[in-house]
Queue: 4 jobs
Job 1
Amino acid sequence: MNYFTPIEANISMEDETASFSRITTLESDEDVMVFVETNYSSDGSKTFSIDVSSSNYSNSYSESFDLESVSIENYERVNQNTGQILVFGIRNKWYSGVVNWSVSEPSIQNLSTLNTGELLLVAIEHNYTQGSKTPRITAVVSSVQDEVTDYFSVTPLEISSLAVISEDRSKAVSELVVLNKLDDSQQFSWRLDTEIENITSSLINLTGNVFIYIGSYYNTEGIYRQVAVINSSSYDDNESIGVVIS
């Protein structure tokens, strides 16, 4: 937009791939629309600048943007406890060609040929072992990559609750709730360390959950820490709680 008297202005635009320049006459209060199309040969961070100058006036504008060549879309995880299903899409936003994508936990490496704008749908089912998991999905085209990281914990046999429901000067009653998250039954044993004694159990066959009530005795007043531990042939868990004897 020219806000002053008629001028002859030089309008130029420049980026990493090309430059454009044109001289035009602008009347007072006249504006001009300029369209420049650029084809980039690589993705990543880009910057372009626009300069307008005349014999007496000048102005400039610059902008940076990221040119994204690939994206991971609509990630979700279906939780089936030890079995997890990772579902996501990989979209090629660059020229038709090969997309290099991978998954950690489980370890998968793959190459897929996708057209421009094409979406690849992926579903991965994996049976995880017990513990914390951080699967990362990565997709790479040209020099730019996109990634998604998830976090979850697999606990097929779990102490869902440990609470002291009664306590006095010499004894306490604790409630231990154990949950079996598998469809099949599991055999497990439990142990409660009261700092005075270790109270143990024989094997228990469990489907679903079970409530266990444990009485413990103390000789002196004070604050004690109880630690509950459960074990099966494949899984384990533990939890702790404070007890006040007074």
Job 2
Amino acid sequence: MSARFLWLAIVAVCCAALAGVWPALAAAAAVIQGRVVDDQGRPVAGAVVSAYDSANVRRPADFASPPTGSDGAYRLVVPPGVYWLVAAVRRAGGSAGPLQFGDRHSGDPVRLKVQAAAVKERDFTVLDLRSAARRYAKKNEDLVTVTGQVVDGQGRPVAGAYVLADRRPQIRDFPQYLSGWTGTDGRFVLYLRPDTYRLAASLAWPPPPGTALPVVLDCRSPQSDLRLPLTDPAAPAQAPSAIPGQAIPGQGS
């Protein structure tokens, strides 16, 4: 038997095997579909819905839909299983990497279990950080308002930053509170439940676990005109500092 004949025979066997397996695989696939809309219910074009096989969504997706069209519709074909889904619109395109100023996101991942040959419907609403903060404030009328400005080392306003607040000195998974993106004036607004918080300002999104929150602020009453220095999101934990005019709990008045 010649080598060429043997090679053709192997190819024929493989094709025959695939012909029998592929229809079975296709029949077992599940479909996740729906629409991506904004906070006014209008369809969003250019959104990508990503599916992950674990709750860790800080990595490339296991499956991603093509970008939505003008009707906001998406469709994902996946093997049966449990997935965590998010939708995002990235100004730079693509479906992976940290969110940037102006990007929109659906928020916490949605857990969805799909069976073989099933069709699941799931819609998503995408917001930028500023819109998300406003929506959260409307749902929680008892929150304290904290306003101020993010500045760099020379005291100049920083655009495209955001402020995160947490009761813990470091971020373990995700911050408890977020502001929207700052504009060219560096201004931010936070809506917090009355308590004492650790704050930081960052340009990187999302904040990695272990991000230090060096500023301590008593937020039992509204605070305004704070000047918050931009914090390196990868900086190690450091001794807390107080916003001017605010005391660090346990360190005097």
Job 3
Amino acid sequence: MSQLLIETIKSLNGELYNLPYHQSRFNLVRKNFLGCTDTVLLKDQIQVPEECKNSLFKCRVLYSEQIEKIEFLPHEYRTIQCLQVEKNDTIDYAYKYADREKLTELFSQRGDCDDILIVKNNCITDSYTANPVFFDGNEWWTPDTPLLAGTQRARLLSEGKLKVCRITLDDLGKYSKIGLINALQDLETMPLMDVENIRR
């Protein structure tokens, strides 16, 4: 069996969110990384259990050439008030691997901060589980150098609610706020903090 990959989908009150974006990434990974030629439709494979239809859950789809496991986990938003910069010029997470050992190793070095902000070749990439977005007083921006281009990021870019540009450590002073978006948190529900709360 090939290396396991994962799709994490927001399930709120029985509704699966951003499914077209998850399907698109799922298709690309199966074709380009796993060499699959068949089509597997997530909407046909995922059935939300009755006991998971009254709250917020994280739907985890584990797969290689075929779907190996689908599970629903209760989700609560973490409080994130401080980010620790972690520099690593060799880390690679181009695909959403189930094995997050290298990311977890960086996360363990956060000290008394709540999360990390990974910098690769002086460019801002991602936090432990999210794509960062920065507010300049007028618009939201996200780095053009993510380790993993998330589905929420893709949706917000396509809707024109987010713009993309190169953001280095030296650029942080151009922004006032930083938020963290992922499949379960968008611009309305993401943790938000002052850029000054990024520790270098």
Job 4
Amino acid sequence: MNKNTNDNKKIIIDFDGTLAASFDLFIEAMRAAHIKYSFRNVEDDEIETFRHYSAWQILKFLGLPIYQVPTVTRYIRDYMTAQIKALPLASHWQETLQTLGLDYELVILSSNSNQNIQTFLDQHELTYFSEIVSDVGLFGKVKAMRKLIKDNCWLNKDVFYIGDEIRDIKAAKKAKISSIAVTWGYNAEQALINHQPDHVISNSNTLIEILQCAEFKSKKQ
């Protein structure tokens, strides 16, 4: 658990694709699920196009009915559990988290399971997070964000959400918090830019500059 000294800024970080470099494993798991549940497969030459789709567009592309989403999500999550220890840390998070953990409260909010996330954190010796909000539904991030903010008595203006998907940007906007999109995850950079997050970064170290700038502006107001 981190011991933050800055009572203002809170950083909520997505797990899959943002903190963990899990996109390749996700594709592998989804292909296994396609065999079991008989929805459309994603071919190698379709992956780049796939990365430009929103969550709803992905479901349509796969021909996956909404009622089947929870079952398939659980299957994919369980598939990934067996290989969670082998997942690499994305970008340059080790150094970035070490710096941010000194001054900011860090929380993970994810659709993945608490077990998978905690195993990954232990594997990479990441002890900077004060809370893990896990098992969030595919379209349940807005509700989870609002609850997290309310339960902790945070001010929306002090909260940043970092994610790699279009749905992360949309959720942050609906929750009325700042969104930071990362380009190394599931959705392609241009797809993220098209949905107008507050910031787009290609290296986690850039976060420090963004937060310092936000803190400076806040003090001037």
